[in-house]
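Quick log. Single chain, no ligands specified.
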Amino acid sequence: MMRHSRIAVAVYLATTLLSVAGCGSDDPAAPPAEEDVDVDLGQPPAPGPEQPGDGQGVAFAIDRLFLGDTDRDGKKTAGSWKQYGFNIDGKVSSTISEDLCRPADGATPSDVYPDGADGIDNSFGSKLVPLIGSLLPDPSTKVTDAIANGDFTVILKVDGLGAQSSYNPLTAKLYGGATLGTAPTWDGSDEWPVVPELLEDAQDVESAKIVFPKSYVVDDTWVSGPESQVAFQLNLTISETTIGLTIRNVRIAMDLAPDHKSVVKGTIAGVLETAVLVDELRSVIGAVQPGVCEGSGLETILDQVRRASDIMTDGGQDPSQDCDAISIGIGFTAKEVQLGQIAPPAETTGVPCGETPADEG
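-> predicted structure:
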């Protein structure tokens, strides 16, 4: 496989954007007309008054991931994808909306819409996760099992976080957790190694590339801050196969437990650039099912990805343009850990469709 085989989920700053999507919709019903809906719904809470940090800070490591094939209790429920994400484009879109980008590659509005609850944009969960599940069954369960084994995690370290219910601003840093070497205890003592790809200085664990300098807490909900221009790649390893998702226009929010030592409900949202993801999936599919590389099977799958595009790369809509990106929403929970040592650089393995193994010339 083409990504970090040693790391089940690694997150690192990317200059190239990867995207993903799939096919099918489980709910043809249109939401209420946009003029009847408050489009401020489906957004994370706004910041409160200035209140500087007064605590030692906490590093939260994701312990469960929800990709859209299950609800937040881990149960397979139709339409679970609707609860993950945010209303990125500020619209509550349906099959009759007229102010949206044009569906791509011959798709129709009914192939892409309606949105999820309160205008949540998540074509990844609606369209792509079923496609991933057809190749790699039970993706949310498999990726969470890998975390429970200590194979990987994603870490958000919120500096200055203390006991108060609201802060503004707080600096937060994002890390990729490398292999722990054992199953985590989740009692706050786990020292999780971090991948060097996410550091400006591979010798300094505090030199995170992905920083949210204007994050805040409102009524025990942490928010990453204004829409981030940082793009980061989230590598999801499912059954030893890694799928790279580079997310831009990133928005992250997480509801904290009363003691601020764990996350009871978290959301990562943004957009994925379709053309780049198609290249990523070409690699992944070639590793999972090499036989698909032959004939028209691969292009049929990739066409399904293109037709899932529902938004523009900048997170907006433009009715004069074809949609060129796919909205994404992922749920998670997290627990306190300690930052460990810096791991060695990850290795890459695998051969995608169209490439020849090095030992074969």
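Confidence is low (pLDDT under 50) at residues 1-39.
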